[in-house]
């Protein structure tokens, strides 16, 4: 488990360094928001287009090899970006093309990582592993912007990209050598397109999965609105720049505490907890909607705790959801089914961020935020009507180990 966490921590830190490095490089060179949008879209679009294909690849080949190749691809793209930036001012077409290569690496690595965890970690240890991975990724996301900004200011964006490439290389070397606990059963493979269709049929077979993923898509869309509109509301109506800093830090703390506690809480029905974890994201949306209607500095004392609660819920949700997929989806289909989950998540939040400002310009900020608060709560709590959600008990930490000890004792005395 330590090797897995070390490798994924390096990959998470490298991934989190990229946006800040590219943003500072492009703004330094052009000062153009449009140019920055082109470069960032260069990573996002290939990622979205290739995820279904990547799911098939993750199921056809050993997960560790796919992760190894994906990290090497991302590392090579970042090394090329570093060399490009060291040669002179950023050239947008080259950066956009190399960002597209990075996006392809993200697409192929995402479903393969989920399969890798399932293949090297078994039973109740998966929840612990997913929780620790969540903490590592959360800390990486906190540290990366400051680290990238400091490195760019001290040495330039080219060196930040080269550091990112090195981190991806370490991740590839670490994760590529992980061996599965047990051999994956041989499955006769069909044509690529047939396996793609079979992945969709397998996805539709799990009604609980589609219902929960729909709820996730709604809160990701709402997160795009919140992250776009909340800073403006905080600065203009809740007390200035410091108000947004307080809200953001409250959310960060909530996320880390939630992820850290997910494997320590006695959660008997994980999908019920996942439903409530998504639904609680409606609280800060409602609080910000009220703040947009009736501005008052005192409302900061409401908005910050609700955002803490929302991010705590998402922190608990993340490892529980990953562990549930690894237990309930057949391993030979996990890459394809999981790719649909990632596709909805990756697409919904940028969509929310893209349309938030235009919608708010027409309706005001309060209406979309309050509407989304209701939709988030409704879409996530609606899954509780499914027996597959309410009745699933998961694998509790410690339970498999007790069974193992009992089996060992039985063999000893017999």
TrEMBL record:
Name its cellular compartments: Cell membrane
Gene Ontology molecular-function annotations: transmembrane transporter activity
Query: Is the keyword Electron transport assigned to this protein?
Result: no
Recite the UniProt keywords alphabetically.
Cell membrane, Membrane, Transmembrane, Transmembrane helix
Basic and acidic residues: bias regions: 403-414
Q: Where are the transmembrane segments?
A: 39-58, 207-230, 242-262, 271-293, 299-321
Q: Which InterPro entries match?
A: MFS (IPR011701), MFS_trans_sf (IPR036259)
One GO cellular component term of this record is: plasma membrane
Its topology with respect to the membrane?
Multi-pass membrane protein
A Pfam family this chain is assigned to: MFS_1
The organism sits in which domain of life? Bacteria
Q: Which residues form a coiled coil?
A: none
Region described as Disordered: 395-414
The name under which this protein is listed is: MFS transporter
Annotated source species = Actinoallomurus iriomotensis
